[in-house]
Amino acid sequence: MTQTGNMTAMSKAMQDCVEACMSCHNVCEETMSSCMQMGGQAQMQVMRALMDCSEMTRMCADMMMRRSPMSAEMCAMCAKACDMCAEACMAMPDDPQMMRCAESCRRCAEMCRAMAGAAM
User: Fold this and answer.
1) pLDDT tens, residue by residue, 18-62
2) Which of 33, 43, 72, 99 lies 20 to 30 A from 1 at CA?
3) Which of 70, 63, 72 is CA-nearest to residue 118?
4) Which run of H or E residues covers position 89?
């Protein structure tokens, strides 16, 4: 990317965070599908966490890519949604998809927290 107007190239840290968000979004979507096949009342709480995390990570990536002035605050909220989702997924430690999702959420939360503390 080149500089055009006040649009500067995204930092490597921001690019990595966008990728972590998109990866987490995809894993959450896959995990929702897996969760729906399982059924059961216990899954409802997990489904809510997955939906919140899926939406937040997608929106967070979009906002960083367009250099929204609200990116840092969005990253902080996204980290919280990822933490909640990871915790919900950890309730099913025997399910490999849930563990994959929890890991992706944790990685995304960590990167989003770092971005929230950085100047965008």
Assistant:
1) 999 999 999 999 999 988 887 776 678 899 999 999 999 999 999
2) 72
3) 72
4) helix 71-89
CA distance 118 to 101: 26
Closest CA to 32 of 106, 114, 101: 101
Kindly state the helix (H) or strand (E) to which residue 85 belongs, with its residue range: helix 71-89
Tens of pLDDT, residue by residue over 61-104, are 999 999 999 999 999 999 999 999 999 999 989 999 999 999 99
Q: How far is CA 71 from the centre of its chain?
A: 13
Angle (CA) 52-53-57 rounded to 5° is 120
| CA dist., res. 5 & res. 37, Å (int) | 49
